[in-house]
Amino acid sequence: SITKTILNYIGGEAWRNPGQWIEWNVEVPEDGYYHLCIKGRQNYDRGNISYRSLSIDGEVPFDEMKQVAFRFGNDWESLVLSDESDKPYSFYLTKGTHTVRLEATLGDMGMILEELSDSTFRLNQIYRTLLVYTGATPDQYRDYKVDQVYPEIMEAMSLESKRLYKMVDEVVETTGQKADKIASAQTLAQQLERFCEKPEKITLEFTTFKENISALGSAILSMSETKLDIDYIAVYGENAKLDKDKSNFFKKAAHEVKSFLSTMTQSVMSMPMRVTLSRYGYLQAGIRVQYLRV
Predict the structure, then answer these.
(1) What is the pTM of this model?
(2) 3-state secondary structure of 156
(3) What pairing do the DSSP bridges indicate for beta strands 229-237 and 32-41?
(4) From its phi and psi, is residue 32 left (phi > 0), alpha (psi between -120 and 50) or beta?
(5) Alpha carbon of 2 to those of 43, 229, 245, 288: distances in Å?
(6) Is 210 helix (H, G, I), strand (E, B) or coil?
(7) Gap between the Cα atoms of 246 and 31, Å rounded
(8) Which residues, 6 or more positions from 205, have their beta carbon under 8 angstroms from its beta carbon?
(9) pLDDT by residue (tens digit) across 213-254?
């Protein structure tokens, strides 16, 4: 409807932490092989990927279903679960009711975030060692000769800078773009590089060094969130044709024009609102589970 919008999806803020899951019950008409399509949208975090593991009746069918990736995009995506050559996976299902579960997971980002956490721990150790020597507010007119007093710290800074640069590259390779949240790691890598080239800058930038470490810790927590919206899951036979919901520029433009014209004939305040509190504790309005017969 042009004048009324039904919120017919689930997820978002309430489904962002690893381990959280949502289940759907699907009714299969007869024994056989079926394909799965998930209509989802990850428009929360540019430069990040939201991963979900898929299980059927409590079992992950095969390794590829341990991390189904949803990349950033403003539009809904009808994702047919397929291999690298875009051949849809086949799932054998018996006649009757089956439970499909999607569980939030970190996927390929898990190892990278673990490495970043380890790096943050080591950087805090470096900071605390220097803090004992220089104090919280070092004298900017004094040469502390940190490179001579703590040569092992300088070596650790150099090594950590290289590690951070490598982790930034890994994130870009995984997500396909450099997100704002990983920028704090690059900022720290550049700062450590400056410290190694000019040790006198350590005391001059000591406060910002601590702030950058804190910013990296906050970024890690933020990147650990994996928000995703799901409209529906389609289970359809191998010989059935799936009609994907796909909009385009002209459909969007026509909808916007009609929506604008409708505001001249209907009061927004008079529109009724109907929502339902789901068993998971957040608002939804009807979850569709769709399947097509063989």
Answers:
(1) 0.77
(2) helix
(3) antiparallel
(4) left
(5) 23, 22, 17, 21
(6) helix
(7) 30
(8) 191, 194, 195
(9) 999 999 999 999 999 999 999 999 988 887 766 655 556 566
